[in-house]
């Protein structure tokens, strides 16, 4: 029963035997065994840390079990306390035993992140990316849900890397939750540090939207992937004709699983390799992947057929991406137009990428039994990976790094990935394709209908479509090249929101994603709130976005890869983004170390904001969304991006209270003879 969320851990959990408690449910995928290099003293500390959640009279039962769990799985997940009396999923918001509607909204988001149809490893509390954790263990889940059930409108829940630090007095305008993940001293942000801190239960990798409870399944990236592919065709192939173009990539996990659906929506032939058959079948059964094949010759034959017929389809290859690239490189006929990779290379030696020349199961066994040998095998595969890609790009394929640390890890493995010291020979997709779109303020805005009614979601689509039509009309008279770029985005987004329901994108909560700028987000939010107030929409709506956005993330290999003033390694933007959202009306704010490019490689912030139809919610939305976007536009303008400078000047004309420091142009001739 959903009412049990308010009870926390009860005596029924202690009735299980150790064998029952640690029994693995074969119906869902499970995280590979972790191999943290802990000393005996650190193992004892990990058990001691875990026992803190329980009364002393339970320690004798749990201590040996937690030690066994650590030895067996490499982490103390506390499987004993995994809920089994109710299905883990997003329920209608009125189902939650909460005193505060914003708290109920957060409860819904947490459960959606752990839904087995949504999460990658639901029983290990991992939503996506191999290690993107919602919590360290199940005790944290129970305690967090109990606190949320008790919370009033004048309390704030403080979350330390999955640990519910407690409810603290605040006020109605304060966030109901403040979430941090992986906030460690910079000199202690290596992979080895992460492995140890996670095993000790002290910290966790929240990815972008896992540990901030903002994940909405593969739909969360599908719009961004669609427009990335479309803009890549326009830029690299110099055409608007998508039919017959072939895009090859890898990964069918939590985020990468959006690729085949995005390819079909864009109108291309998308071929995706995936070593984990369960992940491939999950996307196939959900309808996100249209075809699957394990024979390379048949994959090549199918590409030729689809290319000749110019049909949009998605083909999943069950096997290693390197084998696919090498087979395509041997093919006399050049078939591939575009290429990339979305394997979880932020986690290269923990299940995010697998070596070629061995089966998936053998590779997993090697990872657990001999991590050093596994690392060597992965790095050898990365070198082969780059070599095969190089052969195809020499024949005309265009390749980009998808911000998953692919080129970074390939370079660390010894592959030739640099055009010159510090400059990759293949661009980041943000740097080369999406950077100017972000600089114009367009990014992955999201909303979740907490009623759970699909009818409500369809009504939100209509509202969003109407807002975009208004913005298109207002922008149609301008011939300014910057405005024309914005107009193209409005047109793409209008097509998206007009057709998105036809593509059956919902996995988990009734959610939607739409790339919008500040004006679009604000207008959509206000009109959604008004529709709730009128009763046209049956329940509150939770606003969110991907952290991978205009302002949300500082990441030199992805989100800020097109920052050219040397500040791409600075994290002021993401930190200020979270702080600024917190006092402008957010329901929750989050700040994470890591994100898609890996622990220690980025800083990212996110938010949740509940619309309940009140005037107060409308005020919060306008104030917070204006800052949430324009903070990043202003930073991108200061770095010298012409699109961002144009956009922030436009924002200043609309909002008289906005005054931004603008960069002055510097003559290159003036600098030429200085040094």
TrEMBL record:
Record's signal peptide: none
EC number: 4.2.1.49
Keyword NAD: yes
Biological pathway: Amino-acid degradation; L-histidine degradation into L-glutamate; N-formimidoyl-L-glutamate from L-histidine: step 2/3
Keywords: Histidine metabolism, Lyase, NAD
Any GO BP annotation: L-histidine catabolic process to glutamate and formamide
Domain of life, source organism: Eukaryota
UniProt keyword annotation of Hydrolase present: no
Domain Urocanase Rossmann-like: 217-433
Pfam families: Urocanase (PF01175), Urocanase_C (PF17392), Urocanase_N (PF17391)
PROSITE patterns xref list: UROCANASE (PS01233)
Domain Urocanase N-terminal: 88-214
Catalytic reaction(s) noted: 4-imidazolone-5-propanoate = trans-urocanate + H2O
Domain Urocanase C-terminal positions: 436-649
Cofactor(s) named in the record: NAD(+)
GO molecular function, one term: urocanate hydratase activity
Gene3D superfamilies per the UniProt record, alphabetical: Urocanase like domains, Urocanase superfamily
PANTHER family reported in the protein's UniProt record: UROCANATE HYDRATASE
NCBIfam families to which the protein is assigned, alphabetical: PRK05414.1
HAMAP family membership: HutU
Stated family: Belongs to the urocanase family.
Record protein name field: urocanate hydratase
Naturally occurring in which organism (per UniProt): Chytriomyces confervae
Lineage: Eukaryota, Fungi, Fungi incertae sedis, Chytridiomycota, Chytridiomycota incertae sedis
